[in-house]
Task: structure prediction
Amino acid sequence: SHRKARDQRNLIGTLQNGGELMAQMGLTDQAEENANRILALNPANLEARLLLAYTHQCSSRYGDAIREYQAALKLSSTDQQRNYVALVIADLHRLDGNREEAQRRLDAFRQAHGDDPRASMVQGQLHADLGDHAKAAECFRHAAEADPPVPGALLSVANSRLQLGQKRPALEAYEMVAK
Result:
């Protein structure tokens, strides 16, 4: 029985590692299969829930991804995990075309957590989706100036400036990305 439990933990670890590697390689169907095999053994496995949610996200199955991230949110044991997942869920609502729900979730996150630069990235994407590139650039700039900067924020600043026809500031931002 002790050996069976150890073997199951080893199998779950192997499936998890393999699933993450497959997802990184773009083999989302195989990664999803691994995640489902883990969840069949242990439905409360946070990493498998996150992997399954990520595979749905990569396949543009945003509703499925939202459901899995919400299940992961319930399993999350740290504020850092919960905050990350909450922002991902808000962004997935945006990607799924439900901008009102994305904004509602983002507002609730900001009310609870203040001025988080990762939330500025999601807010910037919402503004960009609506064609308000000036507001988007301001949100992205805030995220880029954070310590540490949010990954991708500076590139988003450059893209927004380019959309506004501000070629020189866009070029300067692109050059900073290249450094």
